[in-house]
Amino acid sequence: MRKIALILAAATLGALLAGPAMAAERCRNTGSFDAWLAQFKKDALAQGISPKVLAAASPELTFDESVIKRDSGQGVFQRTFLDFAKRLLANPRIPNGIKKMQEHQALFARIEKTYGVPPEVITAVWGLESDYGALFGKFKILPSLTTLAYDCRRGDKFREELIDALRVIQRGDKTVAEMTGNWAGEFGGMQFTPSNYIKYGIDFDGDGRRDLVNSTADTLASAANYLHSIGWRRGEPWLQEVTVPASMPWQEADIDTQHPVSKWTAWGVKAAHGKLPSGAMPAALILPMGRHGPAFLAYPNFKVFIDWNASYVYATTVAYFATRLGGAPPVDESGAAKVQPLTTEQMMELQRLLQKQGHNVGDVDGRLGNGTRKAVAKAQLKYKMPADSWPTVELIAKLQGG
Question: What is the per-residue pLDDT across 197-215, written as a single tens digit (0 to 9) for each?
Answer without folding.
Answer: 999 999 999 999 999 999 9
